[in-house]
TrEMBL record:
One of its GO terms (biological process) is amino acid biosynthetic process. Keywords: Pyridoxal phosphate. The keyword Metal-binding does not apply. Signal peptide: none annotated. This is D-amino-acid transaminase, chloroplastic-like. Coiled coil: none annotated.
Amino acid sequence: MAYSSSSSEKTNALEVGNDSDFKCHVFSSSTELLEKLQEKCSSVGKQPYPAMYSSIYGGIILDPAMMVIPIDDHMVHRGHGVFDTAIIFNGYLYELDVHLDRFLRSASKSKITSPFPQSTLRSILIQLTAVSKCKKGTLRFWLTAGPGDFLLSPAGCPTSAFYAVVIDDDFVQCKEGVKVITSTIPIKPPQFATMKNVNYLPNVLSKMEAEEKGAFASIWVDEEGYIAEGPNVNVAFITYDKELVLPFFDNILTGCTAKRLLELAPKLVEKGSLKGVKTKNLSVEEGKGAAEMMYVGSTLPLLPIITWDEQPIGDGRVGELTMLLSNLLWDDMEAGPETVRTPVTYV
């Protein structure tokens, strides 16, 4: 994009290429740059990010134009960072503590030390949600090796950094089935798959591959031929014997929602709707031969899968037990115990 320039601005312009008419504008002051950023942000109808926290700034930011991360942060140029996401639902943070526990486990595996204890991180996230005034959306947060330089080692980064942002998102319960494919993108090795780090290029390519083939997303299969997970979700099955089965978490990310599903599903066993709940190694043949199939993830919380590699799952329709399980999770989000729902006092 070429900006109109005064004669004085043209003096500071950088010409790109000998035969190009494109001129790079040189911002003469931080005020001028901020005005340009605010102009771009104001062109968006509804701001999707009502508030951000940055330990680099040392506080909460409400101006979208200032919601930035330093270019020399080790997460930006080396992918040295971890993240997690909690749901904001009807003014409560759902499973905040479970996500924070996993977050700090991922940080430990990535050799990143938090600048704050867990209790302070928790307090920051609750305050951020309160200031945002968002009552339905997601809360995403990162720990990074911090800014410092562009070298491979983070030795030149004086301190780690903590960032968080509230994302206004009016998600609804998923009731329509989707199609999936088997991903041809290599699955991450267990060391990296079991930590929620920002190195998501395989996940992105896997999702793009599915979309290019007219599917919603993909399924990863490990080197031994066992079903692993989706690009950013877990996967679960209902057998014709009415058992809920999820793959072992040994070599994949331990999903917070998947674990909660395993805790809640026995309620359906007690009612006689399900006969059992377990985790096990599942072959692709077993998965495709299941009666029902679903993705499991925070913002879904369950998404029915009706076709895998053009082959119908069960009768090719959304399964009754899938929706009963979805209702269990949705009810838990709406009115679950205080152990999973953290109230937010909005300001």
